Amino acid sequence: MKNLFPLLFCFFMSCSLYQDTESPKIYFEYSDFDILNLGRTISDIIISNNGQNLFLSDYNNNSLLNIDVSDQLKILGEISMGSHPIALDLNSDNSIIVIALEGESTIYTVGTQAFEIVNQYSIPLMNVNDIAFLNDSIVVISSRTDPACISLNLNSSEYISQSVLNGELAMDQENDILYVATSSSVKKYNWDGDRFAQDSNISDPYGFVGDVHHFVFNAANNTVFACISSSNDDEENIQHIYSFSGSDMTFAGKYLIKSPGLAVAVSNNGERVFTAPTDADEIGVFIIEFDQESKLESHYYLSAGNLTDRGLIVDSNNENLFILVNIPGDDDSFEPYNDYSFDLQRIKL
Amino acid sequence: MDSPIYETEPIPNYNKERTISSSFTIITNYGVTNQFSLTGFIPIRYILNEKVLFRGQNQNLYHGGKYFRESYGLGDVVIQARYQSTFFAHLPVVFGVGVKLSNGKINKTDEFGERISDNLQVGTGTVDPVLSIYMSRDVWQFVASGGIFTRISNGENIYGYRYGNEIQTLVNLDYIENPLIFGGVQFSYLLTTRDYYEYGKVTRDRGGKSLFFTGKLGIRGTDRLDFEITIQIPVYQNLNESQLTSPFILQFGSLFRFASS
Predict the structure, then answer these.
(1) Does B3-256 carry CATH code 2.40.160?
(2) How far apart are the first and last CA of chain A?
(3) For chain A, what are the domain ranges?
(4) CA–CA min distance A270, chain B (Å)
(5) Domain A34-348 has CATH 3.30.360.10
(6) pTM confidence score
């Protein structure tokens, strides 16, 4: 009987007390991040149609970066230019990048092949915030402080003041339609060959005075997506990304991300919507993918740090997502004005 | 602990989280008879966790930055009764039955007055049974020994948190022949199950399996006083989701034998 005691004890030890019978629903797994260390304050990001090159405007270092993303992330080139580049756009064949500066009234064009400055243009706006190609000859430029946008002809250097409110710009190039996300609503303007005229359809007001962080147009579902936060700190946080129908500007859906959106990207077919929230989850900062049809989350992608305005783009094959991340633990520099720097992270979809 | 792993693989520690866990444990043993003894483990603990928060992770520190959580004080005391018997003529076996008390505080708060998580408190908040079995045998000039220790969770604490069960298996080989120094090696296998939050919500990042190798070296100061240093290194770890691990655990110990009357 005495010898039985250890056997019983051992049996007791091996029982199901030490088995996990439940596990949490896990949407992601950690793995090492694919990061290109830049340590810069990036204001805008665009990608070539072939998905091989990313172009980033470096706001603090007054330069344009060319990043090779075909294999290992690496910097291919850098061009210095005027004060505080703020916004970028590519023309239809991806041969020219147009760059708007916030710190001076100049627009630059850069050839993507040779990666050198092609031309520069003086404009009558200051504090420019966005720029977009209408077609390969004409760009539309918006300013934070001037009352209206201008159009600039890149061939003749002529500009025309347009009856278009300032805000974030999104262009439907196929149909010559300009969408502008202002601080109160989304406006639609039609191009008549010389001037923009406001469409009879405008969106309902947001219901608050907003700061627009990112605004994109998706041709596949003819929808614009706006990332907006409230300008008034006392108001409750905006928790959604808004979308509006391009045809009649009706409300096309909102995507719940629990904090204001900083950036949005949409797959070419319009089915997948990637969103960058302002706030982190308890576990970390996630890019949230939504199904466009159901407006529900479908995937989460862990990012390495805090996200930023316009800092999210997807390549045309929907294979890679590129995001700008500010890793708080890396803020160990004592260089003046260098406490808010971003790196580039690639996420394979 | 500052080296996170996901299951078995190392992962980056982008928010630079680390936990420093120190414990000063007084172990008292009173032999009632030659076969029966009572043992008490009285830990005094200090736990410090620091990390860099992301924006929005803590509303009290909305824009992020360094965040500290700290707790210290008397941890949960373990009281155990041990009974020794000999089996198969030459195999001494020690059976232990006891309880881990719930005296350790579990309501420490951070600098903003928010209660810090259960895993960073010095106590657990529940009275749990602890069982052990230990046996040893002389092998030439060495002593081979082995044992099993288990703590079985006895429900939720007052905050609704339920710790998982724990079982640890040890195998030791010690050299004790020399009058001045002694030493040995140990392999230990630790298995813990997941914890549960209030209402039965299962936790992430808790529980798993670990295999440790421990080296031990000691000196005999006097007939009554020994000093010992051990270093424990993880050999294999397979943890549930991501958890912070430590590259090594350093332990200093001393043993004083009181004279029997």
Answers:
(1) yes
(2) 63
(3) 34-348
(4) 30
(5) no
(6) 0.85
